[in-house]
Design brief:
flat, Rossmann fold, five-stranded parallel sheet, alpha/beta, 46% helix, Helicase, Ruva Protein, domain 3, 12% strand
Length: 454
């Protein structure tokens, strides 16, 4: 086997046992792994059990023809190259094979060397397609989530867990304070999962009264109640093939909890007023800022539903515990919102950044975005200042995060000494994060490193 002759897994389909044996012997000698089938039904079964790189099939066979089977594979497995063998080497046959999705065709009696060249090209095509697919998958998984931006240990742990569990269809309970980004975690789980091409549907269980919520989730048939003039599928059916997020799940009425549990167990939903069940292939994620275990203890949430939803729990840290992520998010919001407001704001003045770090952020990321949006609307400068912030942020109670004086008692320091102290104070406040420090100081990283070296 030369370097250019990649070994492949080849399925040969022909009702001539002698030809199957000949091809298996020759292709195996060339380094390939070969399986044979005398009819399409056997080939279908083998494809379910075995990963195959190329299908080599005869054109005329009893029952399903090679071209019909090629069309079937092209619809269900477009990544799988099919080479068709035919004793009728006409132009019409070639056109029919290619229209059915065949990669190539060869004529009988089969020239083994020419067949090997065709299979080699098909195998290279297959491997190239697989590389492209893997690259696309890698790009999709690494695509950043703007509001999940951050480098704090708590957030990095959540991101790592998302990557590990994304492809498992198990239920996930996402917990955390209001405004921490629970829906963004759900969207990231969906985007990184094998369901990413399916729909992502989210509903706030606290936003609708019980009767409307039941219809929204499970659907209804026409005439099921007074206003049911048309049938409705419901979100479980609409989200089939994708992901359904039940936000504020703690507010789900007790009367609906058994019905939700039944859907989670059976993957079937019965619309209101319906007499039959509908299959729903959906991954369910739930989110809550409340402690569900406490609600179970007080009888406001069913324990069996809690355990069914809480297979895996992801807990988002509050923004006040994320340190310098506050500034990373602030810079991102400034960049996004400046474009919307058509303002040339490029960052934060250092005292303003210090105030953001000192504030406890009870409203978390949502509050931070609102504060930045307000400041951008009000500012008259190219950097946000303390005066652009609400009073509770611009004038926080307690210890100031950075010293306000850069002079010694009774002595005025030089400009070089003032710069040195200022740079070290900023680095100390930012836990030596030099990337953030350079942005706050308005200099590039090379300049900062040079000044530190000096």
């Amino acid at each position: 086997m030369t370097k250019n002759n990649l070994p492949g897994r080849i399925l040969v389909i022909d009702d001539d046992q002698a030809l199957c044996d000949l091809l298996e012997e020759d292709l195996s000698r060339r380094g390939h792994h070969v399986w044979t089938a005398l009819k399409v039904a056997d080939a279908r079964e083998l494809l379910h059990r075995q990963e195959i790189d190329i299908v080599l099939t005869d054109l005329n066979m009893p029952g399903t023809s090679g071209i019909e089977f090629c069309g079937e594979l092209h619809s269900n497995r477009p990544d799988l190259p099919v080479v068709i063998m035919t004793a009728f080497g006409s132009l019409e046959t070639a056109i029919a094979a290619l229209r059915a999705g065949a990669y190539d065709f060869v004529t009988k009696p089969v020239d083994l060397d020419l067949l090997n060249i065709s299979l080699k090209r098909a195998l290279q095509h297959r491997h190239l397609q697989e590389k492209v697919r893997l690259l696309k998958e890698q790009v999709r998984r690494q695509q950043p989530d703007d509001e999940l931006l951050g480098e704090s240990p708590g957030l990095l742990n959540v991101k790592q867990q998302i990557t590990r569990i994304a492809d498992f269809d198990t239920s996930v309970l996402i917990s955390g304070e209001s405004g921490t980004g629970k829906e963004l975690v759900a969207r990231s789980l969906h985007r990184q999962s094998k369901r990413h091409e399916g729909p992502f549907v989210a509903i706030n269980c606290a936003a609708l009264p019980e009767n409307l919520l039941e219809s929204e989730l499970f659907g209804h048939v026409r005439g099921a109640f007074t206003d049911a003039r048309e049938a409705r599928k419901g979100l479980f059916v609409e989200a089939s093939g994708g992901t359904l997020l039940l936000d504020e799940i703690a507010e789900l009425p007790l009367a609906l909890q058994p019905k939700l549990l039944r859907v989670l167990e059976d993957h079937k939903v019965r619309p209101i007023g319906g007499s039959s069940e509908i299959d729903c292939d959906v991954r369910v994620l739930a989110a809550s800022h409340r402690n569900l275990e406490e609600r179970v203890a007080t009888g406001r949430f069913r324990s069996d539903l809690f355990y069914r939803l809480n297979v895996i729990q992801l807990e988002l840290p509050p923004l006040r515990d994320r340190g310098n992520d506050i500034l990373l998010l602030a810079f991102k919001f400034i960049q996004q919102l400046s474009q919307r407001f058509n303002k040339s704001v490029v960052g934060l003045a250092q005292p303003a950044a210090a105030c953001l770090l000192a504030y406890p952020w009870p409203g978390n990321v949502r509050e931070l975005r609102n504060v930045i949006e307000r400041a951008l609307a009000l500012t008259l400068h190219d950097q946000l200042t303390i005066e652009d912030f609400p009073e509770q942020i611009g004038h926080p109670k307690g210890r100031a995060p950075l010293p306000t004086s850069l002079v010694d008692k009774g002595n005025i320091v030089t400009l070089d000494e003032m710069e040195r102290r200022y740079i070290h104070q900023v680095l100390e406040q930012l836990d030596d994060n030099r990337t953030l420090a350079s942005r706050l100081l308005g200099i590039d990283r090379k300049t900062l490193y040079r000044k530190l070296k000096e």
